[in-house]
Write a structure and sequence with these properties.
By secondary structure, this protein is mostly beta strands. The protein has no helices and 8 strands. The strands form 2 sheets. The chain has a 5-stranded antiparallel beta sheet with strand order 4-3-2-1-5, with no helix packed on it. It has a 3-stranded antiparallel beta sheet with strand order 6-7-8, with no helix packed on it.
Amino acid sequence: MSTILRAVHNFTSENEDEITFNVNDLIEVVERDDLYSDGWWQGKVLPDGPVGLFPSAFTAPCDAVQALYDFHAEHKDELTFYAGDVIYVLEEDGPFGDDWWKVRLM
């Protein structure tokens, strides 16, 4: 499984070889360029963005969980998912209450 990061700041590309993203976008790391230690990695915004460079300092690890059961949304701010789906956790704490997370399904 590839490394998935969550954007914690907006970033607008300034060069052709960079990618633009917004807070809570998911970024798949294609290559960590630790050789230069400049903090710029190569990745793509999921699900189907172009590959380019991005500042890794604008991102954070993103936890992924696998659904054990089906859940059918009853309200417009809920997400339907099925047992076995991989769900990326964007926020665990917030105005949703202890048992609700802000997530993204890929």
